[in-house]
Amino acid sequence: MVHKKDKEAKGSWVTYRPEIKLLDCTIRDGGLMNEHQFEDGFVKAVYETCIAAGIDYVELGYKASKKIFAPDKFGDWKYCDEDCIRRIVGDNSAPIKLSAMADAEKTDYHEDILPKEQSVFDVIRVATYIHQIPTAIDMIKDAHDKGYETTLNLMAISVVHDSDLAEALEVLVKTPVGTIYLVDSFGSLYSEQIRDLTLTYLDAVKGTGKEVGIHAHNNQQLAYANTIEALILGANRIDATINGMGRGAGNCSLELLLAFLKNPKFKLRPVLECIQKHFLPLRDKMEWGYRVPYMLTGMLNQHPRAAMTLRASKNPDDYVGFYDQLTEKE
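Structure (tokenized):
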């Protein structure tokens, strides 16, 4: 029996779609848990692991404004200056493409994002909230005109009204952006919602040549399942991080995706080796991944900053007190 849902799927369990591209954002998203203060050896290990694993893109950090984020408080990967990146990748002679993220209203993009011929980066990913879209569009045009591939990560989609989303997508598909990402910033969405949103995004970009991407957070331990849901429906640009490292509860784990995807170019073993050598020792120095407080903010469709504050406090496991604090606001 063939179900309706099966007819909408873009492949079967014995096939693979070569158009699916993986982006590892371990250093960028993970840096939100340690002020982007990764040592060079760790960053290089992630970069080399992604190459060995056949990953298509690796994102090494932000292009953040030094006027807003003081350099004495953050590591190099908050700014991704050209000389810092080249310390790790040289001229990047490997087939992998390099990405940096630029937050709307937090990036001096006219000055800090160099023309492509002067940079080792290949992709600029603009992250924006719905109310910042006019700025984000200008950033997309700026990066495109400078010669970069571009993506637009529309954040906190779980709190965006359907009418606002429809209007935003209508405007965005008219820009030169290459991919529009569905971003579950709060880790609050369930598979049915991911399904509806993915189909909405796919319908919006139909006939434009643009791609749809998915960036999921793991507050309710659904990042992997939600990523697969979007992927099966036709999202071809997939974000993941090694060992799920990322802000708060973290992201879809790269190793899980590699175990799921059938494309023989992807290799799991290098990622497992990197986790064993570099990530397990780091667990003693920084925290990431699922914890009950992140589940609670995800359940309530709230930004995880309150949970992050709790985890950094003297009573990081006061789950009941934190639950009462959150629900008293309702």
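The longest strand covers residues 97-103. The longest helix spans residues 191-205.
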